[in-house]
């Protein structure tokens, strides 16, 4: 099999450099340089065939066999023209080999599909990927008082108090037995989890030489997929040295020299590539003295197809031709694939960028164009020069060359805003333009710091791994994260675009103007942007009720991951670049956003804004660490911000707060205990981690306002609530803001249930309460049956976000019970729960309905359709038939529920029709909508057809993961087939995603739903023989989840079955 690239690198290699300028270089060197260019020009050709080769032939170039022979001659020339190869680094000398590549960002899946409110995570979540994430939900008990037959599981941690009562004594005994089973499960799980591999040795770049300004000119070849580059960097030598160490990956340096200010040029005599560390050392024959000088480097590289570095993106013109754009994705450590540089966030410099491009192409970079002139060597090319950037980090540099239309406006503070779209689709950029034009002034006012650049461009890229990337002044997006068709885009897509735009533009201040000092502080960039995007969308679209959606999209998502033993602290020490990808996850994004939200609530908006202004002005154009932000916020608020927040960012996990109440005359005395919450059951460790928890308390007298607020800074706390009558309920964590779970005593919980039924408890608190109960059941602390009883109270729930969270929790439970023979019973439960709200909503919008009604209708109909609700299935089939025949086109908000319903209960004709709709779709949103539901098909041979389709040319590389994940989440049979498909096609999939975030997501979606112990062993064994270093933590988390699912199933399956049977036989069932 052919290598991914012809000139792959050995682990470390070194070439002598010419001691003369290229024009005067000896013949052998000029031949070597030509060979390098020639070989580079054919790297990608060896991987391409089919339509790309056919397209290349149309250009008049010679055939494939000529290219193959020429490439081989080029490689031979390289070996002949390499007089010496120095050792150094792992691997020493050696043959040519492939070099691993890295990709970037964030995104997760939910058994019930994506939710409209997704954290960014994935979503610049930095380079931000995220199709809407999973939403989880909370509950109450149907119109009756909960019996709570399994009271023993609700054992109070107040042993002395509980022991005083005979009933509590029995509870303690039962709890002890339950705890023993938890302990054995935990031991099994912990013994199964391998320790994280030792971190690879790594050193940051030496400080002897630092850049001041990069003068960079790049000339991409959009036919041969290569580029030539010239770098003239103004540098400062701080300490005398005879070598310069830079970052460099997948680039061949041709010549390099250094000219001290006012002195003669010194030519490098060797280039030593340390490929494992992605570095190159330029050696000079004499010492470079301290002072200023100019470093010049000529180099060549490849426009790769890995969606990182300087890469090619395939698109189709309105006339149907296939063409390629040259685009960039540099975060976290891929600027080094476009030009040799000091690719660390703390090593900032200014950039003077110019691009040599075809004259009929659009060329964009971070700054505005200052000059566009004919290129002297080719009349078909132009040289485009851009203004000098502010001081910035390399990962924020960007350039794009391609064919685009645009729409533009100016914000109220005078910034030129443009949205670039595929040709002919400018209309689809107007919504994002509107959002961006509102967002810039909002952030300017909020931070009291103006946007520092003259323009901001937002551009849709066809092939893009992340959701978006916050490059300063040139923000890149997936098409689905930027483009909105007024007629064919659904409500959830509009909301998604608004969130992503808000996230990326927040980074223009928080991340770009002030940048993290090192990747250890990545969470600060991403967590902050993932929080403030909601603040921005709430400002622009208050009708979205976006903060309630935050709880289901980010807050609960972070809780789910952080409860695992294989989670990690928010702040993770990062060394080698290969470690960076592991922290682009829900901890950095969603937990980061959640603790920032908690902090904002704790110190108040006014002091928070003052602190943010102080931080941004103090560190603008510089780098900062987490502690710098805490210092600014502490100065503004006078509260112990650093002490409080260090307990949330430096240790893994979060607390479970147990609370019980005692009435003393007209007062209620609350006793609180905090313990670490673990997905495997009650915490049994000896270290007893402690959090400083901002506790807020409300009562039934005024559910929307705080009765008491206190900082819990010790394991146990007693509070007295004055003038609270016995019949009044008490609730902790008003607004579900504190990042902890709450377990109430039985009496306190039962007193809260009427407030859920009569809706006097606000939606976000109803959601939070039910989600806590569901998580306690998953951990085995309470019975799953009791949670099902609570869920029945939600049949008349009006709030979309509460329903979406409930839907996701029932999806998780349905996936678990698909491993039993009573799966149909849980589907009947789903039908009973969702039928009343489905009948109330109907299929068609009613006058006066808004954004959230449209989201709720799609959610409910999709849930009923998948569960086999007869009336919903019949209507979905009728509407689908009319849609396909063109009689009545489905509204965008109804397409997903209709598609998933007809596929779930469809046959080969249904699948063929859906694939035809996919092929005909002109919008990427519609293609993605279809791709995400194809896995709902149930027949084995059709499941295989969908999996084969996932790797076809019909599916963009970044979307293959969604298709395979949809199959894995569609059914038990699909889950097995998807895992086998991943194993059978592992080499192709791993080479496609090269160890980046998408490979982690693929693994998670493929195996997370298993619930058999032996599957954890199988997954572990497979990845021991097929290493995926950047997904190591994800693999461990998946194995842990499989074991937890298996334990949950063994513990509660029979009780759930009996409850569902009794309920089915009862005339009082919903």
Automatic annotation (TrEMBL):
An MF annotation (GO) of this entry: aminopeptidase activity
Transmembrane stretches, by residue range?
A: none
| Residues in ERAP1-like C-terminal domain copies | 729-1042
Gly residues bias: start-end ranges: 86-95
Q: Which UniProt keywords apply?
A: Aminopeptidase, Hydrolase, Metal-binding, Metalloprotease, Protease, Zinc
Which residue stretches belong to region Disordered?
78-120
Task: Return the protein name.
Answer: Puromycin-sensitive aminopeptidase
Query: Organism, per UniProt?
Result: Gekko japonicus
Q: Which gene encodes it?
A: NPEPPS
